[in-house]
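Notes from the 1:1 (GR / supervisor)

We went over the backlog. Supervisor wanted to see one worked example end to end before approving the batch request, so GR pasted a single chain during the call. The sequence is below; no edits were made to it. Supervisor asked that the structure be written out right there so they could see what the output format looks like.
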Amino acid sequence: MSEQRRARWVDILLLGVSAGIVVGLVLLGNWQIQRLAWKLDLIEAVEARAFGEPVAVPGPNVYDPEEHAYLRVVMEGTYRHEDTAFVKAVTELGPGYWVMTPLDTGARIIWVNRGFVPLDEKEPSGWDLPRGSVTVTGLLRPDEPGGTLLERNRPEIDRWVSRDLGALSERAGLDSSAPFFVDAEHSAEADSWPRGGLTIVSFRNSHLSYALTWYAMALLFAGAVAFQVVSRMRANSRF
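Structure output shown during the call:
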């Protein structure tokens, strides 16, 4: 009798744990559906910003990293070519560097990613180097402090793996700069360097497949539990 009571208690416990697992899997699926809606809204917003008419750069007290990411902007200023920094990059053109140059707009300094140069084109003598006042059109991007998951920036040896605006400004002796940079569009000759306009405006969207996976796991697990419960009931009815 005690063994039967113990077996029933264990069965009830296992059934409760199984129900909790099924609920957890369903909740994970629901969370992915919520993420899907968020991602679709983000994609729509970014496409509207990135491919619309260029607008003025947000003011110092207006900028919002989420609201203004990939916003197409236009600005005027003078490049400080002597303060250019090179940030490691890999693009569709191969390995090389992003050319980061501060632009003095008169009101403030805004770092500009003038574009990509391959490893063998790092020497500026063969570049397009606009002098005097220039108009820059491009996509607004948020700061990338510190480095990447695999490597850190090393300002002391001028080695950069991310667009860390604070560290770049300090290295160049600038008092301050805008908390964002601009990926410039390519406006010079098609085969000239740096090569702008290489910003990838796309977002991986696998939330629907993840949601379906969680729901399928919940269904399969619930089916397996139901099968065990029915099998146990049939086995007990024979005695």
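Supervisor's comment: Residues 71-184 form one domain.
Batch request approved.
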